[in-house]
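Lab meeting, action items carried over

1. Structure of the two-component assembly. Owner: GW. Status: complete.
Input record:
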Amino acid sequence: MPGPQRDAERTQRRILEAAARAIATKGVGVSLDAIARSAGVSKGGLMHHFPSRDELLTALMGDLLAQFDEAVTAALDPADDAPGRLTRAYVRAVFADLENGERAREQITVMGMIGSDPGVTALVRDDDARWHQRILADGLDPLRAEVITKAADGATGSLLWSRQDPRELDALRDTLLALTRDPGALVEPAR
Amino acid sequence: MPGPQRDAERTQRRILEAAARAIATKGVGVSLDAIARSAGVSKGGLMHHFPSRDELLTALMGDLLAQFDEAVTAALDPADDAPGRLTRAYVRAVFADLENGERAREQITVMGMIGSDPGVTALVRDDDARWHQRILADGLDPLRAEVITKAADGATGSLLWSRQDPRELDALRDTLLALTRDPGALVEPAR
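Predicted assembly:
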């Protein structure tokens, strides 16, 4: 990659990280000026990379969602080719985040804060639909997969409210992983 | 209740509802002036009831948490005295919220937005710990109860991103309710 393009990417990354930090500490209404200052660029420099507030927030959400994707990919076990492989990686990635402390807390806070921004909602909805399809294709009964992934999602609340005992989180993670080992229905179909 | 006290409670309720609406639409940084205006009171009138921004946000979170408590109580089945009774009411209350559309979406958005406010976090953490204890006392295996309630919590994300097919939400709710009917371990203990 040529030097100028690499420089541009570095600047964009610095702006996105400054934006996440600023939003997490000062709220979603933080000014672009404050974000630019904290990234060490001029406001004009920020607007060169992200021409509007909406584009900055959308790029930030895209970046956070991409980081989660990468974390799931990294958590895939190459030796595991049984049904539920992706669901296991999803659970591992969420709980690894939960153990990551401040950085993950900042990411989840920011996703919650900007996720209801109209420009960002469509992006999140598409990402959610894409994950839903990926998990459905993972070879588990759909409702089993849904319970497991939703329980992992719900556990992220613990990170924000920081009540949960780490041993309890480990036990929950291990239970969810064990639940992925049986591909069948989690409960008998209703009569 | 004497008239003046009832009037004060009405005014407080109007302010809290205006605050929720303003925060959901304009962000957590919305001014107290704007909230007062939208509640039809002067800023002095707002400050008489809620002397600081922190006190207003804490009262708002307390009100939202109390509304959830009331929803769970209302969802208790008087004829049900089997283990898991409270967990079933919790699941029913969360999914009733999910079907409630705009109002529930506003409440969940606001809880997410103000939950990381330092003054509010302690309140949420205490409420979370209290729910944890109540669910643990509900007669189900603790990890079973944890998976069920966390999956219900995780499903609230669907409301915000609004992807989920209502029939899929019904199926998830029914699966979680069915899971409360067996008090034992959800998975075999690890060897």
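2. GW to write a short summary for the group page. Key points so far: DSSP finds nine helices and no strands in chain A. Residues 1-51 of chain A form a domain with the Arc Repressor Mutant, subunit A fold (CATH 1.10.10).
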